[in-house]
Amino acid sequence: MQLKSSLKQLLVESRANPGFTSLYVGGVAFAVAFTMIFAIIYYVHLAPLYPEYNRSSTYYINNLTVRNDKTGAMNQSSVGIPFVREFVEKSKNIEYSTIVFQKQGFIQPPDQSGDFSVNIIDTNPDFFRLYSYEFVVGRPFNEAETESAINNIVVDSSVADRLFGDPEQAIGKEISISYKPYRIVGIVRSGNPVAYMSYANVFRPYTIRTKSDNTSLKGDKCDYLGYYSVPIKFKDSRQAERFREELTEKVRRINAADSTGQRLDIQSAPISHTVRILSQRSNGENLSMTEYLKPLLITLLLLLIIPAINISGMIGGQMDRRLAEIGVRRSFGATRGHLTRQVMFENLILTLFGGIIGFAIAWIIIAFGRNMLLKLIIPAWECIDAPAEISTEMMFAPLVFIAALLLCIMLNLLSAYIPVRLSLRRPIISSLNSKR
């Protein structure tokens, strides 16, 4: 099969049947556009992106439940510092962990130009080990500052630019957040709200928030409840599984030793970043990865199979119109394999052309409707009040390009091969007489 002659043949057929060509390309573009929207959105939430480069090895403990079997009372909340100290920090089956409490506050600019809102994370120094924020200037607050609850904070470059015009000028300066003074010790490159588990404009030691949450255990399991999400960094999935077994056993022992009727429930914690996104739950459920992937796979198959069936029917009609041409070419020695490759090539070119258009449509839809689309994936209670950004890193990711190419090839194989082979099985005489 010669490439030049094949392209000429495709051009002739496209001009002779513009309706078929337009519908074919449009059908492929529709399938690719909506599939790529799903692919890009899930890529944004699952792939390693700034500053969440450790997503594949990051797990979370987000919620705990304390039930009283005697009274029927139940308390559910985020994680408290006593739980972190007793069950997480002492474990040898983790690399390191951090704590995160997200909230909003208001900065009072020195020039009195008007308060503006910022997203705040209360955390500890290990936050900057787990989440790879790039320091433009300065440093993170340290353990001593955290233990002493000193009002030293880290802000992102957007806050530094707005307040001082230059990050270099912000270091050491004092600012007012919710009418409390804080001193800036570090400036990080701004994150992205799509990385919502680590996104903030201001980072401060968790001990500033409240002294009462930093108490020791009093024997009541409700002391394990608190305000924090607990991201944990593991070396690999095996270490994560060992920690889960260790945690489950510790919880089983304290529940068995309790005579008051209180029972601590950790559900399936810790859960991986992937499970948290796919399950759209803070702690997930005791389901296999297949159960989480099933809805996504069904949606993907529907987006592939329905257009493929429609395109296949169109190709079948087109092949019926070309039977006479096929009969002539076979009578001059063209083999079925040669003709199959020719027609498959033509359809592949049309499919790739439709794929490029579909990819462009997907970019446009995501660029202009990113906030709405991202909220379809992120649970409402996780959404951050900040404009979402789809960066070049996300839009032009190699994995997304590969997915688009494979999608085009799959559509071509699904839609074209069967009608082409059925048409070529007809006898040459029957093909030649099809136009009589």
From TrEMBL:
Key words of the record: Cell membrane, Membrane, Transmembrane, Transmembrane helix
Transmembrane parts of this sequence: 21-44, 296-315, 348-369, 395-418
Compartments (UniProt record): Cell membrane
InterPro entries: ABC3_permease_C, MacB_PCD, Macrolide_Exporter_MacB
Main location as per UniProt: membrane
Pfam families xrefs: FtsX (PF02687), MacB_PCD (PF12704)
GO cellular component labels: plasma membrane
GO molecular function: transmembrane transporter activity
Domain MacB-like periplasmic core: 21-249
Segments forming domain ABC3 transporter permease C-terminal: 298-427
Membrane topology: Multi-pass membrane protein
Protein name: ABC transporter permease
Organism: Duncaniella dubosii
